[in-house]
Amino acid sequence: MTIEQHIEELRTELKNACDVTERREIQAEFEMAQAELAVITAEHDAEPPF
To answer: What is the 3-state secondary structure (H, E, C) of the chain?
Structure first.
């Protein structure tokens, strides 16, 4: 599963979460995944062209 797929899955889980505690846990994981994607994107953009 790609990080983008994981983010979409978490987004869906957030929409369907009924419990406040579950929602907070999913939100935290969602934010971590978004941060990870931002790092991956920044690293990719920083690579010198070959």
So the answer is: CCHHHHHHHHHHHHHHCCCHHHHHHHHHHHHHHHHHHHHHHHHHHHCCCC
